[in-house]
Amino acid sequence: MKTIFIVQILFLALFVNGQSTQKSEMVDYFTNNGLSSSVKTMQHPAGEYYKGVTYVAYQGPTVDPYVASYNHETDKWAGPFKAGESILTGRDPGMIDSHGKPAIIIDDKGYIHLVFGGHGGSPEFGTNTLGSSLRGKMKHVVTKKPLDITEWEELDNISPFGTYNQFVKMDNGDIYLFYRHGAHRSNWVYQLSTDNGRSFDEPVSILKTKKTEGTMEQPDIHDTWYAWFENGQGNDIIVTYNYHVCKEPNHDGERHNCYYMVLDTDKNEWRNVEGEKLIAPLTKELADEKTLVVNTDTLWTVRGAVRLDKKAYPHIIFYQGEHLGLIHGGSKQVIYYRWTGKKWMTAESTDLPVATGDIMVSSPDKASLLLAGKINGNAELAWWNTKDGGQSFKKGEVLYKGKKSGITTSAIIRNAHPNARVIISGNHKGDYKKMYLVGDNGSVKRLKVEADQLEE
Ligand code: ZN
């Protein structure tokens, strides 16, 4: 009898203790309702640090955009809140179209903007004069109040024909929205807002899509592009891009080369790395002649990221491999190039892993790549550093390590706090992902009861 009583007491104690542990249990993810390809480096920024708070955006349930925030001073999370409605939702049962994941930017008045939802734009929105249409609708939403992510409204002031939405904001508050104006066979463009995103000018073409010489087997070939934009020096915007051979019939993901150029937003002029003026939109011929970083010949590439060193020389990463495997999760060797002031140099270092990510540069010789991938069987986000201008790389701090594969990373957060440099996603249940905000101290923790957003 006495023994049973003690066991009962023990059980009660355990139960009570268990419950209290559960309530205060911390986890390393901030939500578990990321959907499929919830963040990538392409749609960026995916987050911005502003006045003590990191705001993050990602693709959540039914491919709608979600926003959460983390206050670095109070250690409190808010959200995620659904910020808009994507019409890419559920277009085919079982197929998730992740092309419209959100990019985020905070304007000079503190309103938070997202652009999302486009995969070329559905033909129902009319004729796409700058390319081909496909599906979805690129949309723009903004918070109803400054820095308050709970309520959003839609602004009808951008083209519906967008894919790969990216924001670049200048020091004077101008907001450039970059994207491909439609499906594959579309120009890359920007729209400029000089009034904190309340209106945007008409799209301006940067890279031109056009029919090119075909072959007997594939008579229908178009020059098309993938591009990634970022702030340069002063009022410059820099871009790295690659070339997609868009061919029919038997379309595939064939892409080659790496290119670089600069937009001087004061003069509204494009120039190449040597300062030579370029006429936009660039054709394939002009891009090859004036902006080529490297011709990869038969090797395929996936565009990466570019940042400047203190001499304003670009450092670029991209991914290179053989054929289809490259696009669909195959071997993606990271390739690093930098401009020396006279030429592009690479060591094509074999030290670098199969991974994707972003780059930070301090001096011409010192670059740090923040890369996510499967490394020695683990899902890892780690720094890979060079101190000799890219001739060799050494693995630095590991910021996140998980046993499950399937890790993907955003580009580096705008104005990132060192404790919150990127957003990564890792596998959860089915197509759902756990989302992590990761910096120099590892993941930013959150109460499990708050982070478990997905309904069981
Ligand atoms: Zn294509």
List its traits.
mainly beta, 7-stranded antiparallel β-sheet, binds zinc ion, 456 residues, 8% helix, 34 strands, 5-stranded antiparallel β-sheet
Mind explaining what this structure looks like?
This protein has helices at 2-24, 284-290, 324-327, 448-451, and strands at 26-27, 31-35, 47-50, 53-59, 65-71, 76-82, 103-106, 112-119, 135-145, 148-155, 163-169, 175-180, 188-193, 204-207, 210-212, 220-231, 236-248, 255-264, 269-271, 277-278, 292-294, 300-308, 314-321, 333-339, 344-345, 355-363, 366-375, 378-386, 394-402, 408-409, 422-427, 432-439, 442-443, 446-447. The protein has 456 residues and is mostly beta strands. The chain has a domain at 349-456. The strands form eight sheets. Strands 15, 16, 17, 18, 19, 20 and 21 form a seven-stranded antiparallel beta sheet that branches. Strands 2, 30, 31, 32 and 33 form a five-stranded antiparallel beta sheet that branches. A four-stranded antiparallel beta sheet has the order 3-4-5-6, with no helix packed on it. The radius of gyration is 23 Å and the shape is globular. The protein starts with a helix and ends in a 5-residue tail after the last helix. The model is unreliable at 9-18 (pLDDT under 50). Bound molecules: zinc ion (ZN). Zinc ion binds next to strand 17.
